[in-house]
Batch of 2 targets.
Target 1
Amino acid sequence: MHDPAEQAADNLHMVRERTPLVHNITNFVAMNYIANALLAAGASPVMAHAAEEAAEMAGLADALALNIGTLSPEWIAAMIQAGRAAADRNHPVVLDPVGAGATSFRTASARKILQEAPVRIIRGNPSEVLSLRGGGSKTKGVDTIHSVDEAAEAARILARELGITLAVTGPVDLVTDGDRLVRIRNGHPLMARVTGAGCTATALIAAFAAVEPDPVSAAASALAFFDLAGEKAAQTASAPGSFMIALLDALYTLTPEDLRRGAKIDLEKRL
Amino acid sequence: MHDPAEQAADNLHMVRERTPLVHNITNFVAMNYIANALLAAGASPVMAHAAEEAAEMAGLADALALNIGTLSPEWIAAMIQAGRAAADRNHPVVLDPVGAGATSFRTASARKILQEAPVRIIRGNPSEVLSLRGGGSKTKGVDTIHSVDEAAEAARILARELGITLAVTGPVDLVTDGDRLVRIRNGHPLMARVTGAGCTATALIAAFAAVEPDPVSAAASALAFFDLAGEKAAQTASAPGSFMIALLDALYTLTPEDLRRGAKIDLEKRL
Amino acid sequence: MHDPAEQAADNLHMVRERTPLVHNITNFVAMNYIANALLAAGASPVMAHAAEEAAEMAGLADALALNIGTLSPEWIAAMIQAGRAAADRNHPVVLDPVGAGATSFRTASARKILQEAPVRIIRGNPSEVLSLRGGGSKTKGVDTIHSVDEAAEAARILARELGITLAVTGPVDLVTDGDRLVRIRNGHPLMARVTGAGCTATALIAAFAAVEPDPVSAAASALAFFDLAGEKAAQTASAPGSFMIALLDALYTLTPEDLRRGAKIDLEKRL
């Protein structure tokens, strides 16, 4: 990974040029916003959740985003089928374990997907991501974490255990494959007032992962892009309704050059 | 209930301070808007409809909003499970019987929920609410009602029969527990051009009921708040698209002090 | 069909006066936008997909819009029941075969609906519509079509074979019943950046078909109206977020007189 901001700009340029088709099996709440965000960013969305077509659609798409925000058992089965079909073609699979750690059904469903489908990147908040630890994990639980540095260390250990790149979002976003660790310091507090903002970040990561094989670079680029769009939106909007619309506009108007200049991505040296 | 506008202001203040988690099992059309409205108002939304987790999620949340706008039998079963779990913890359950009285499936489903889950407040338009009368009800049918006063009287009788607080919304909103009767004279006609505005009112009532044990006060406060936000939105927007965004903004920017001054809530003396 | 722009204005006037109730069994992504667009345009939306009520609701409504954007087998069954109930009352049924031609499940589902429910109008892009050709069709496949004229000729042949009016949308929209052929030259490129824009066009066609028995006139009027609203929206918005909101506003503010003056509808003479 050379200069991360440069790389983010290149990755955004590739998304705009290749307009990757992102297959989403996602929650009912955020579907519309995710689709509009992907379109605004330059990618192309498709939603398809039926067992009858999930695998076929995943084969047609360039990336797959799975999100358990309003899950039910049939949808989990379709997610696994789609995940396998995507991975068979070496397409990236990104998982958003919404609410894992909150109900036992969500924690179990997220773990089942991880076991049965080859997930390349997980995006969640600290409690969601850290709920995916196994029994013998050396990772700290989320309740014992009190700083970004502790969260980073826990994420790094878990990424290594799972063999999956983790994107842990919050005031500072973290991306790690267990080896490299990236911090993204862009964003705006109003993003937390837009429902499905996290889910949208996940879908954008899938779009970037469709054009960038390195999962750390793809996730960091997508998050810096989304966060910088949030900063731009906050220049004209100061309440959540107009902000969520300005955010879609910013995903459309932000250029690779804006991203190169505005991205605050710090790459820690390998340990 | 002392001065209702004062109380509305206090209730809004409490919502903002406590950020109650509102569990919604609601329709596909309004889910996104409801979630954004709850976030803008200062509450926290969660949607979960699977039988595998509905009761557990209801136990984690501070209030439950049930809405049959795009119902199917499995969802009704989950609503009942969640309703019981919420009531077991003395958390408020609010029902929105969307379309009751229109199709027999909706009328029957709304009645089934009422029979099997302990609903504290029902929010609907006059025809929806009055379709919930039982066979031997003394309440007038909606077809024989020609004025707000007749609707108020019918609602009061029905509230007493059901033992549930009713919030009947329209140009003038009514809230009654069969004893007290409150009229709210805020609002704006463009609210009727935003899909899911009624459903959003229901979710806001749930948020207020999470912090205010008196169901009449909670419902009246939430409706005055939502309606006043509509008035504020109409100051900058004159067509439905920009209005629905301005309405979200107003839910965020409206202060308890604005509500204390702007709420037009009339409390009728007890009979 | 006399002067098509005049007729479009008359049809819009009738929608505003009669506020037809449009029953939608449609996809999760576009539901909210469709409902808001129908409300803005002056119609009234209802969504109901359960087998328990789909037919009853279709009987209550003035038109039915079916959309397979996020389909599953149970929804297809409900679509067919609703389609039959609507047709029994001579209410128009409009089908949007989203993704037909992409996965075999979608192509098969669209064909099944066509076989089992009396569809009056189909709205889709060229590849979706032309995927509905039967085995012995004389229609060209979409892969061999390289111009609007070729698409028009293929659509005309297919409309005649199916006995259904086709609305094929793109930079230039085409409407044909196999005999008459109409081209609509309104619209704006940003419409393609709003998710569910096509689905919304379909729902508006259903609203217009509820007040205008001639399916060619209804579809052409609705598309000219929607496209002209897109042009108006683009006068104030230059990015997809603000554009999709301005588009809803324009559906509300556009007058029949605006449509009479702005509609660019060309009617080809009968062959």
Target 2
Amino acid sequence: MTLSPLAPDHFPDLPVIDGVRFSSGAAGVKYKDRTDVMLAELMAGTSIAGVFTRSATRSAPVLDCQAKLGADQSDRAALLVNSGNSNAFTGAAGERSVEAICDAVSDATGISTARIFTASTGVIGQRLPHEKITQKIEELVESLTCDGIEGAAKAIMTTDTFPKGASAELTIDGQTVRIAGIAKGSGMIAPDMATMLVYIFTDAKIDQAPLQALLGALTDQTFNCITVDSDTSTSDSLICAATGTSGVDVTESAGFTQALRDVMLDLAHQVVRDGEGATKFVEVRVTGAATDAEARKVGLSIANSPLVKTAIAGEDPNWGRIVMAVGKSGAQADRDRLTIRFGDIIVAENGWVSPDYTEEAGAAYMKAQDLTITVDLGIAGGMGTVWTCDLTHGYITINADYRS
Amino acid sequence: MTLSPLAPDHFPDLPVIDGVRFSSGAAGVKYKDRTDVMLAELMAGTSIAGVFTRSATRSAPVLDCQAKLGADQSDRAALLVNSGNSNAFTGAAGERSVEAICDAVSDATGISTARIFTASTGVIGQRLPHEKITQKIEELVESLTCDGIEGAAKAIMTTDTFPKGASAELTIDGQTVRIAGIAKGSGMIAPDMATMLVYIFTDAKIDQAPLQALLGALTDQTFNCITVDSDTSTSDSLICAATGTSGVDVTESAGFTQALRDVMLDLAHQVVRDGEGATKFVEVRVTGAATDAEARKVGLSIANSPLVKTAIAGEDPNWGRIVMAVGKSGAQADRDRLTIRFGDIIVAENGWVSPDYTEEAGAAYMKAQDLTITVDLGIAGGMGTVWTCDLTHGYITINADYRS
């Protein structure tokens, strides 16, 4: 897999989160010559919140995690994730695999299965050869280390071309609070979560209920605002674990909310930058809509339009397709009030191309790697932003032959 | 443009519809060395019904046609269509172009502008050079002929690789009724109509109001059940003109309804077969849904999924992606009640792959050019069928560089 041209230079230095240890290994679930399983151990008392796909065909591990949220948190906890096989649409066998993995982690760590969260990502519909994972667990437990997060980020990759990490440090009342997160995902990415797995760790102190509420609200502003191909996975999982070791209560902290949002948005953007076949990162800003919800609807209509995305791939400033996407969105719009901008360039206004716009200026703008398309609907004050990438031959190549 | 591998062998022999004459010509709106404008003249008394895009940014000709439906029909009528430029998002200039064309047709034919319907298809946002069209109108009027329908079908093509026509003849009370239709469209095709122009002519006798009702109902079962790329045009127009010259009143005729539906479905399928880059024609049948509307929602979720469409392009029997598309559709579904078939092959049932299914059988099936995917949700009796094509490198090639 060629590295995405939109990849960052290197994996970021993530702070160590006190109370969390990681390990990763090669279980050979599907891939050869790479790691494909990660374990995270969380100290006793860690609050665990989660947001999961709403797919009607969600996977066995997702259903298991959802059932376990909000359990008594006096015990330690563990996260066990494998790549290569999603254990989705695998019938009763899928549930047995989750059980077998949880039992093995519990046996090796002494952690109750009620506090063991698993996830699987990869091909749908093939039995998970969970014995390959369970026989690796002793080794994973023995190699747990507080600075193993980069290895964990690598072990959960599927068609990703780079591991994804982001962090924040903030000072509250003179004390430092740290957040470190990792993510995987590059195709089947759409709102309502994506084929995304995201794990965020913090030493902040916050109860499970407010952490869950915060995570849900921030997911709507971050991961649910990105789209690669409008497809939604059966396995999407986002877990945030707060160990509380900093001693700083962040329950009412606007600073923590902002920092967590920044980490989530950074990871979400990295997922788009690793979109299958992506060569352009595109921010679609919609303003002047009847409501925020309508703005988002228009944004997603643009960001999911194959015709808009292929035009961007071809560096073609084909703003007519943006008009089309606004028109089909179902949101309230008026041709004559619409303003479209590429970056700072006003392309269209008053129901037609802007008198100052030139095709040359538009074409020159489209050559950039990071693009901003702004649409003002001129109706009212609703606004929203979504992020996407272009649709290229690379996407077809990757997806027309993924399984063989 | 290479001919679609799914194209029919030849343009069908369409019956002459008494009371309709056609002509076509090369106005040079955008294309060189081909025809790009068609005129149809309809005898006095012809009932004209129409269904149009619901896009919020629909084009000036669409708005004009919608305003003219239901006018007094004692006069003759005319249809004037150009390809190469859609006259959409062209501000007030767009309306002036429609007016200029209608005036020119009226001057040359003596038909009132209230009975002149225009359409334009092609690039969005560029001023329509309507003077190129108006100066051709005398010539078009002079060359009107009752057997010019194939030429008309060719003149309205844009990225189409073949002209599309379909017909039916039926006998009612010993008398023959004829229907002949043409269509264009190959990209930006999605429910709520497509970048499609469809013109259907019949010598049946039926008033405008019942014809309008019939056309709307049949559009929902035909053109609104196809999707190439989920994008919806600003120009979609379907017009059905009934001259009444057969003398047969079809207002209550089930046979006529069926024949008109057959013609519409045939044209709709031809549009899919000419889908940009298409190499496979796919019928998606959904049964067992909570309601017919839910069945259609699931069908469209499958038919619009880039991951399903690229798998089909790669001849990959990746049924896991169908499970994903069912799950994300928002319709009521239950993993364990789902049955998926490729043709007659049961692929998945009872929440997992079928015990009799082999990857070899699935892969062999996927090599066919025409595919049927059946999904039974096992919930209730709702059903629906949609038609689509695969998503290939050809689609990217065509659309990443359409304007230049």
